[in-house]
């Protein structure tokens, strides 16, 4: 099953390698750029869903305090809030699940293309869907004096290759800061605390990966992060949304979402004072007497 993703990407990477003069680094950069552009609509949908969920946090927190002793009622009120605001609480997960196999496939494609053993070379030749690309094997795996198939650590690579894990951490942190919505400074806000933790853990985790994996994969991490940063520059994001996102900019937040996220308290509606209507005088011909309390005479 995974070969249906790996093999086309390996073939495309090898083809780009041939197009760009047997430069594997340029091929990695271009392939990463193409994949990020193709998956941009999914990324935009994921980030939009995350942002809207963040806007609902004040109202969700109010519901949690109000129904803290009734979990069933809390769940019902939360679902009602999501429906009124037009927000799917799982909306940020589905695009990520679709992107995940593609990103793993791209990662593995670079791993297979940078074959460093005879077995990996044979495996690479079997994955190429275009027979004409077989003549390119083995691919050139040296760049700026660094062996792309080895980790960026001495003695297998020069000391300056250690700059790559640092760049991986820096770009991962910057991309996270740009793509995550602003959170509340409230120390008791669980969402804000989780975002702060992820902002620290993710750069360190990817830096550790960069130290353990090959230089070629570090180049992939850095390229992917830089593209993600550029995508979320406001001017670039507006341009990409106008091309790849349907009805970009035309879709307004649901009225319920605007209502629950408004920071200003609603002004009380002034009471309407009604002036009592004046009682109209009944004409004398009505048969009733209004003066002196007398009664009208009956006709014989």
Task: Summarize, please.
The protein is an all-alpha fold. It is built from twelve helices and two strands; from the N terminus they run αααααααββααααα.
Description:
With 300 residues, this protein is mainly α. It is built from 12 helices and 2 strands. It has one domain. A two-stranded antiparallel ribbon has the order 1-2.
Number of discrete helical segments: 12
**Percent helix:** 55-70%
SSE string, helix = H, strand = E? HHHHHHHEEHHHHH
Total E-strand runs? 2
Specify the overall morphology. elongated
Biggest beta sheet summary: 2 strands, antiparallel
Strand order of the largest sheet: 1-2
* Poorly predicted spans: 248-300
Structural class estimated from helices and strands = mainly alpha
Please report which band the strand proportion falls in: under 5%, 5-15%, 15-25%, 25-35%, 35-45% or over 45%: under 5%
Mean pLDDT: 76
| CA distance, first residue to last residue | 110 Å
Tally of domains: 1
Radius of gyration: 33 Å
Topology of helices and strands:
Elements: H1 3-19, H2 24-38, H3 40-55, H4 57-66, H5 71-85, H6 93-113, H7 118-127, E1 142-143, E2 146-147, H8 163-179, H9 190-212, H10 215-231, H11 234-244, H12 255-261
Antiparallel strand pairs: 1-2
Helix pairs in contact: 1-2, 1-6, 2-6, 2-10, 3-6, 4-5, 8-9, 8-10, 9-10
């Amino acid at each position: 099953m995974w070969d249906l993703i790996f093999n086309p990407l390996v073939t495309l990477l090898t083809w780009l390698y041939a197009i760009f003069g047997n430069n594997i680094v340029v091929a990695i950069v271009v392939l990463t750029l193409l994949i990020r552009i193709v998956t941009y609509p999914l990324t935009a949908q994921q980030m939009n869903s995350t942002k809207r969920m963040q806007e609902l946090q004040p109202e969700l927190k109010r519901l949690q305090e109000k129904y803290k002793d009734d979990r069933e009622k809390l769940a019902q009120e939360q679902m009602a809030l999501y429906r009124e605001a037009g927000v799917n609480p799982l909306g940020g997960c589905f695009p990520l699940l679709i992107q995940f196999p593609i990103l793993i496939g791209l990662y593995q494609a670079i791993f297979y293309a940078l074959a460093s053993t005879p077995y990996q070379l044979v495996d690479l030749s079997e994955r190429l869907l275009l027979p004409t690309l077989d003549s390119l094997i083995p691919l050139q795996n040296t760049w700026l004096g660094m062996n792309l198939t080895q980790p960026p650590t001495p003695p297998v690579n020069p000391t300056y290759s250690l700059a790559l894990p640092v760049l991986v951490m820096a770009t991962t942190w910057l991309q996270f800061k740009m793509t995550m919505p602003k959170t509340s400074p409230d120390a008791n806000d669980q969402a804000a605390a989780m975002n702060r933790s992820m902002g620290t853990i993710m750069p360190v985790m990817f830096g550790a990966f960069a130290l353990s994996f090959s230089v070629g994969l570090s180049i992939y991490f850095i390229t992917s992060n830089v593209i993600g940063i550029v995508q979320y520059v406001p001017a670039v994001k507006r341009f990409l949304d106008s091309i790849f996102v349907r009805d970009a900019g035309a879709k307004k937040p649901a009225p319920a979402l605007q209502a629950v996220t408004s920071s200003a308290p609603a002004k009380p509606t002034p009471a309407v004072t009604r002036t009592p209507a004046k009682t109209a005088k009944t004409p004398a011909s009505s048969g009733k007497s209004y003066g002196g309390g007398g009664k009208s005479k009956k006709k014989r």
